[in-house]
Design goal:
Layout: H1 2-6, H2 12-42, H3 47-56, H4 59-83, H5 87-114, H6 116-123, H7 130-141, H8 144-156, H9 164-187, H10 191-213, H11 232-266, H12 268-305, H13 308-335, H14 337-344, H15 348-362, H16 365-380, H17 384-397, H18 399-410, H19 412-443
Helix pairs in contact: 2-3, 2-9, 2-10, 2-12, 3-7, 3-12, 4-5, 4-8, 4-11, 4-12, 5-8, 5-11, 7-10, 8-9, 8-10, 9-10, 11-12, 11-16, 11-17, 11-18, 12-13, 12-15, 12-16, 13-15, 13-16, 14-15, 15-19, 16-17, 16-19, 17-19, 18-19
């Protein structure tokens, strides 16, 4: 297959560009989904609705995390299987991933609607905007199956190096969301309900397009129940591989719930400022994640082929690319933070908090790439346990205690810089573990490869 041959391209910089750029576009689409709601709600001038959207933000990544669990894990498992020329395995894995998205998505939609009041309280919503938060969350929950499927299968379709089809599907959904947001929010005066409906409809369209283009992938993918096998090899193993990224997303959302409750004690406007700043920060972190996730199939495929030297070279150069991007985006976002904040809402109280938060969010952007490289590429070379531990350490096990301690001693300023502290710690631990694993592979390159190049 020509696309699989592309994953063996010895021109590493060319390989990185061809895989990373489309995936960055795809991941930025996810950011635009969340930013579009905040942006157009901000145009209403109603701070209560901004705060409601901001406090509900942790739920959206949790929904996506289940799609990532199956998508990132399925992509890695299928890429490795393709490297071993095991088409039977790729069909069983993709079939399981499809039905997982459908069943779990429906269950999640039901649970969120049944426990909306409890979830809103846990998120740290103030009584002043609670009604708006409930409306947004109930309507958003309807789209759970479509969000999971579109997020999951955009990743799975990258398993053979394909980029155009998933990019088209995601961009079409995003454009739909952006078009519908001002119409539903402002023209029809639907407010937060309109924002949620626009997001759901965008994901439905993305899912439809993915189903259409998946017909061309049936040479190695399958949605048929005949290929559904729930066992350790075709179900548990892909989920284990996807666990690092998914668990990191979930625990980060929990961390956001914790900080939202702490910010409520400062000022509800600080919650709104954090929500806007987080949307801007996602421009950086999601792009960096997109760079590494885009290149991940090449790492997994060459790992499956036993080309450890190539694996090492791809990891090194991709990490450099991510760090360079981190420096550039930090310079832009810290230097232009006033303009960025005013783009969302012209409110002095929110802007005052947001200026400080953005400095804390971006000051360690280059270092974040080191952590993301370790977490993504450990997962790509079948080290799901190590990747999960590193991710959990950075996203919650260290972050939440850091929030509590820094808030205790430094108040709001401590909360601002807690992300920078964990970025440094995550980068140190992650790089040590990844380098150690690569050294072991250098000493034992015949780990089970199918095709030897030595």
């Amino acid at each position: 297959m020509d696309r699989q041959k592309k994953l063996e391209n010895d021109n590493v910089w060319s390989l990185i560009a061809s895989l990373a750029i489309p995936t960055v576009i795809i991941t930025l689409v996810m950011v635009v989904y969340s930013m579009a709601d905040v942006f157009f709600i901000g145009k209403t001038g109603d701070v209560r609705m901004i705060n409601a959207i901001s406090v509900c933000m942790p739920i959206f990544p949790i929904i996506q995390a289940f799609g990532t669990l199956i998508g990132a894990g399925g992509c890695t498992a299928i890429s490795v299987a393709l490297g071993k020329k095991d088409i039977k395995a790729t069909k069983h894995i993709s079939s399981f991933c499809f039905y997982f998205c459908v069943v779990v998505g429906i269950l999640m939609a039901i649970l969120i609607n049944v426990f909306t009041d409890e979830i809103i309280s846990m998120l740290g919503a103030s009584d002043s905007y609670r009604e708006f938060a409930e409306l947004y969350l109930r309507f958003l929950a309807i789209g759970c199956p479509f969000m999971m499927f579109s997020n999951g299968f955009v990743n799975i379709m990258r398993a053979d190096g394909s980029m155009k089809e998933p990019m088209i599907a995601n961009m079409t959904g995003t454009i739909t969301n952006i078009i519908l947001d001002p119409i539903l929010i402002i023209v029809f005066n639907m407010g937060v309900t309109g924002a949620a409906v626009a997001t759901v409809l965008g994901n439905i369209l993305s899912s439809i397009i993915l189903l259409v283009v998946l017909r061309n992938k049936m040479g190695f993918l399958s949605l048929s129940p005949k290929n559904l096998k729930i066992n350790s090899e075709y179900a548990l193993h892909p989920m284990a591989l996807g666990l690092p990224i998914a668990s990191g997303t979930v625990i980060m959302s929990v961390s956001y719930m914790v900080i939202n409750n702490m910010l409520l004690a400062v000022d509800p406007n600080a919650q709104g400022a954090f929500g806007i700043s987080r949307s801007i920060m996602l421009l950086s972190t999601t792009t960096q994640m997109g760079i590494f996730m885009g290149v991940q199939p090449a790492v997994s495929y060459n790992y499956g082929r036993g080309r450890i030297g190539m694996v090492r070279e791809i990891i090194k150069k991709t990490t450099i690319a991510g760090m360079v991007f981190g420096f550039v985006i930090a310079f832009i976002c810290i230097g232009g933070r006033d303009v960025l904040l005013k783009t969302f809402i012209d409110d002095p109280a929110i802007a005052g908090y947001g200026r400080k938060i953005l400095i804390g969010c971006f000051i360690t952007a280059p270092i974040y790439s080191i952590y993301q490289s370790a977490a993504t590429f450990l997962q790509a070379i079948d080290c799901a346990t190590e990747s999960t531990v590193i991710t959990l350490l950075r996203q919650g096990i260290v972050l939440i205690p850091a929030m509590i301690v820094l808030n205790m001693f430094f108040g709001f300023d401590g909360l601002v810089y807690c992300f920078a502290v964990v970025d440094v710690m995550g980068a140190i631990v992650g790089s040590i573990v990844l380098l150690n694993k690569l050294r072991k592979l250098d000493k034992n390159p015949g780990f089970g490869k199918v095709v030897s190049e030595t």
